[in-house]
């Protein structure tokens, strides 16, 4: 998962060549002499002269090497005449500092959940006309991802997605072996996982082992039932029977005999990751699928993955996607060059190449699943493709105040787990708190 932490500044200039392919499909046509003419809407026209664009990565953890190996080298090979100034967030290069210094940004990486921060700073844009100009085919995109992209800013096409994250389901095989429990498998329901967790929540040799935990509150954000946190009027919409049933599905894991939840470890939140990857006392973990255990980060464990467990009412449906985009600010002065660069990232050849490294594609063509993770050492020999849902749940809408609701829903869940209140009271209080906070923010505008 893309993590919003500020890291050291990384700046690089990539000599990326961006000339259109020689086929007439780039917008050119052949003259009577067999020479290719240049027409409006072609890469040759846009990049007839050298152009440099600036790409901004507003978090940490995405160094030059990773960008180049996964995406940059492909663009370098495809196109001549464009250089890219790549800036990563860090001291002196936060988004606000770049705005203050009037640094011109042409492409900014963001996610469906982080897009609001760009809007708030006037860094949003619309590529609708450019897509028409270069005849970009949106049918290549997964339908759910496409709908999510349109929902970023209704009435506009804010950017283009190039990878997708979603919650994934991981398990520690050693703990299953230790207690003689059959491994979880693809296609299981949450009820079946619950029965498995019962067998793994126990004490042995003075050590407490727990069957199941969740690393973050993203199970709320990307919930499989597509339940909205807020309604169209930015009012809390989660004090419902549907939300109650959904949340109780997860609460029950932390209420199993022997789980013994505490304020520092309810089974939902950061401590679950340590229990899984460090202490090795948690058997099954939900976290973003891009956060698989990595040996180069010191996590060496016997783990594997299965498809995200299903609700009986939604067979075959996984969680909602979190798309990762390149957005072009309206202030960019090099829109054509920037659009060509961002659209290249959705080429089928590159998307399949990125899939081999563990980046889930945005394509409607799902044949990439056959090669997913094949070149990522940490995924080799594992059920890697299971980390990416075969079918994403429909998105439940983007609202700048969704995070407020999510925080309060998570607080309600943890209070129920700890036994300090009941579910109805917890959700009612969370709704009241959410509405009050949103009203205060609206008044302050």
UniProtKB/TrEMBL annotation:
Query: Membrane spanning segments where?
Result: none
Among PANTHER family, the record links this protein to: ARABINOSE-BINDING PROTEIN-RELATED
InterPro entries recorded: Bact_solute-bd_prot1, SBP
* Species the sequence originates in: Paenibacillus hemerocallicola
Q: Read off the Gene3D superfamilies from this record.
A: Periplasmic binding protein-like II
Protein name, as recorded: Extracellular solute-binding protein
Instruction: Give the PROSITE patterns listed for this entry.
Output: PROKAR_LIPOPROTEIN
What Pfam families does its record include?
Answer: SBP_bac_1 (PF01547)
